[in-house]
Amino acid sequence: MIRYVLVRLGNGLFVLWAALTVSFLVLHLVPGDPVSVMLRGNGGEASSVDPAAADALRAELGLDRPVHEQYLDFVWRAARLDFGTSFTTGDEVRAVLGRSLGPTLELAAAALLLTLVLGVAAAVAGTLLPKAPLRSAVLSATVVGNAVPSFWTGIVLLQVFSFGLGWFPAYGAGDLGQLVLPAFALALPGIGTLAQVLSRSLRTALADPYVRTARAKGASRLRATTAHALRNAAIPAMTLFGLMVGGIVAGAVITETVFSRPGLGTLTANAIGGHDFPVIRALVFLAGALYVLVNLAVDLVYPKVDPRIVLRAA
């Protein structure tokens, strides 16, 4: 087990290095000069930038050095979790991320909880409801939810439950009411996907001999499903759920914008618009690290769910 974890962490470090390298190269290839953006502000003209001031600021930020020197310095700093200072605010990038991380983690945790609870409930209902039309209706509803873009869902939720009924606030963060609508908008696509995958696995597991044996011993269909079949059917859904974490964090960019919530999504949009390279690189590193750690955690849970699974390092 320890060797497996070490190998996976080594692979994860390679993934992080590759992601950071690609982000560094891409950001230096895209058109636009962050120094000009910083000096002229959001609404200024490019011709209004003083060339002398631009050269001085470029030297201060180290952007006048050769690209390979900037890259080596960037990798060395990233290895120490030092991403420098934000081009737009002048604050340390770690402090900028720290201010935005809390609201996004709150939103992501709520969305993942909704995805898990409602996705499993829909899968079980789509498998156990007594009439075939009811089962089809439940699973068809999850397909519709999966096909609808999260930004459109967010707008509809705002129109109905905020502007129309007035049940929830339209924007902001800080209390439970402000979390409900964005969490549901972010979770809805994942609920449909999880329900579809888990329902197919449940139908396969219910046909296995051990389930028929449990039914023959007097277990109800509900108990046979939840106590026996669900555990073995959960492996594909667990893999999918681990991948959903990255999707939910990425979806926060749109959701937080629609609901005017502070967080990593809003920070990402502002950093891209302002060519804030240090913040963008730190966000790429954070997303990569989250992906590696979540997938490692899911792999470590596999043997707990199904003892037949043995983890071996490649």
TrEMBL record:
Pfam family, one: BPD_transp_1_N
Origin: domain of life: Bacteria
Alphabetized UniProt keyword annotations: Cell membrane, Membrane, Transmembrane, Transmembrane helix, Transport
Annotated organism of origin: Streptomyces hainanensis
GO aspect biological process, one term: transmembrane transport
InterPro entries membership: BPD_transp_1_N, MetI-like, MetI-like_sf
Name of protein: ABC transporter permease
Limits of the ABC transmembrane type-1 domain: 101-302
Coiled coil: none
Chain ranges passing through the membrane: 12-30, 107-129, 150-170, 176-198, 240-259, 279-302
Subcellular location: Cell membrane
Gene3D superfamilies: MetI-like
GO CC terms: plasma membrane
Phylogenetic lineage: Bacteria, Bacillati, Actinomycetota, Actinomycetes, Kitasatosporales
Bilayer topology: Multi-pass membrane protein
Family, per entry: Belongs to the binding-protein-dependent transport system permease family.
